Amino acid sequence: MSSEMTPLFGAVPAGHRSGFVAIIGKPNVGKSTLLNAWVGLKIAAVSPKPQTTRNRLLGILTQPDAQIIFIDTPGIHQPRSKLGDFMVNTALKALREADVVLFLVDGSEPPSKADAAIAGYCSEVQAPVILVLNKADLASRPDNYQAYMALGSWHSSAVISALKGIGCAELLQSVTQLLPLGPRFYPEEQTTDQQERFIAAELVREQALRQLEQEVPHSIAVVVDEYKERENGDIFISATILCEKDSHKGIIIGKGGAKLKQIGKQARFELEKLVQARVYLELWVKVRANWREDEHILRDLGYVMPAEE
Ligand SMILES: Nc1nc2c(ncn2[C@@H]2O[C@H](COP(=O)(O)OP(=O)(O)OP(=O)(O)O)[C@@H](O)[C@H]2O)c(=O)[nH]1
Ligand SMILES: [Mg+2]
């Protein structure tokens, strides 16, 4: 990415650094939590369920002497659908394009086969790779650290808690020092490359992930059909939750609409914090059988690699 993109926003002091930092790892290790913590805003969906993130998303942190552009990526896993293929390819592409790679692992657990496989991908890139053991706030076995270190040869390592903010500032400093010298890529006030409507869809999906169980949450997608700012500053959003089966639709709506209402209420709460305005959120539920294998629907949802477009 750094080689393809020319920095645009010049006039910065000598010694200014700017570049892309990919956050890579298996699902559920805390990649999106870390990006949100560094940017200081909830722009990426976070949930206790694996495979929350599906797209690449940039979080942009502008400081007087550096612009650090974090790339949040889907967790690398063994894909079982076309959607899964897209997610893994998206993560691997970010890994290849970054100036610095953070290989994030859950330090409270020993390495799994998935961690070993990702360590293998990391060994193929030119960029410096920092091994980051997250979830340091949880109890862990002392030999986990050595076991992760042994998975590859790392530029350096860090132990952090993205949730509690432990070690994050120190890690940010070391990451910044590894970025190339150069002016900013984005205006200083910009915090992400995504539109508000994408984040709105993600925050609705986040609540669905948090509030639904078993296979239902992973079989949904969210489309924002309308996103309007009214004259008084209020935001009106109409969104559709797609699911794969009639039975899932019933579960998402819940008894007397209770579940859907709860998803909407929590999503609206998160959105209002982000946009700093009153939000009206209207939610619909539709069945689209087998959409995770349907190229047309995947394309409409933005789940296709740019090269395939
Ligand atoms: N205890 C603890 N939990 C954390 C920490 N960081 C993240 N979590 C939790 O781990 C879960 C997964 O966090 P995410 O940020 O969604 O993880 P992810 O790596 O982006 O997951 P995918 O998008 O599915 O690949 C959530 O429940 C977070 O609250 C941490 O430092 N400590
Ligand atoms: Mg994520």
Strand count: 9
Task: Quickly count the helices.
Answer: 9
Please state roughly what percent of the residues sit in beta strands, choosing from under 5%, 5-15%, 15-25%, 25-35%, 35-45% or over 45%. 15-25%
Mean of residue pLDDT? 94
Rg over CA atoms, rounded to whole Å, is: 20 Å
Measured between the Cα atoms of the first and last residue, the distance is 18 Å
Largest pleated sheet: 6 strands, mixed
Bound molecules: guanosine-5'-triphosphate, magnesium ion
CATH class of the largest domain: Alpha Beta
**CATH homologous superfamily heading of the largest domain:** P-loop containing nucleotide triphosphate hydrolases
Kindly state the percentage of residues in helix: 25-40%
Order of helices and strands: EHEEHEHEHEHHEEHHEH
List low-pLDDT spans: none
What structural class do you assign from the helix and strand content?
alpha/beta
CATH topology type of the largest domain:
Rossmann fold
What quaternary form is this?
single chain
User: Could you give the order of strands across the largest sheet?
Assistant: 2-3-1-4-5-6
